[in-house]
Write a structure and sequence with these properties.
mainly alpha
């Protein structure tokens, strides 16, 4: 009887060790996932910060325009979750400063939302929602150019066509617009740049 009890204790101990090992593996996997996402968010945040301000480009600065589109292509390779977290972090670190700097940062997120989401160039004014007071956004025949300052060229590629922009009203609700565009239009198809060597984040 004693030997049987000792055997049962050993088996129970081994079982507990296995359970503990499984739990440890699960916790490690969770940490790895969290660490991977955190790394991706930081990568995306650096891209946002390094992207030139499109509203400061001269109309003849084609090199600057290409650099912006190139950065947007890279950002579009990250998941919506990662991009949303990166935008929130960008706002927290940049929007504490009032004045001109804040406006320039708004224009950066305004542009990102219009690239990473498959927004139409023209949409009926009744369906279009406004999350900021940017102007002059093209409007004609009861429609608004939601994609401006971006456009689709004859080759089917996204290009930057607008430079001059002003702003009236309260702060730009970049995250709220992000959520609406995601639900209403979905993501733009990914076109990884040939020299993009970062991690793909579906």
């Amino acid at each position: 009887m004693r030997a049987k009890n000792e055997l049962m204790s050993i088996l129970s101990l081994r079982s507990n060790v296995k359970i503990f090992g499984l739990l440890l593996l699960c916790l490690q996997a969770g940490c790895t996932t969290t660490d991977t996402r955190s790394q991706a968010v930081n990568e995306a945040l650096k891209l946002i910060e390094s992207c030139p301000y499109w509203n400061q480009l001269a109309a003849t600065d084609l090199t600057g325009a290409r650099e912006i589109i190139h950065t947007l292509e890279k950002l579009n390779n990250y998941s919506s979750t990662v991009l949303r977290l990166a935008i929130v972090k960008f706002q927290e670190s940049h929007f504490a400063i009032n004045g001109r700097k804040t406006f320039d940062d708004w224009t950066k997120l305004f542009l990102i939302n219009r690239y990473i989401f498959n927004v139409p160039e023209w949409e009926n004014s009744e369906r279009a929602r406004t999350y900021g007071g940017f102007f002059p956004i093209p409007r004609e025949n009861g429609k608004v150019n939601v994609m401006w300052p971006l456009a689709i060229n004859r080759s089917g590629e996204v290009e930057l066509i607008g430079q001059s922009v002003g702003y009236l009203g309260d702060r730009f609700l970049a995250v709220e617009e992000f959520d609406f565009f995601l639900q209403e239009h979905g993501r733009r198809p990914k076109i990884p740049p040939e020299d993009y060597v970062g991690t793909q984040h579906p």
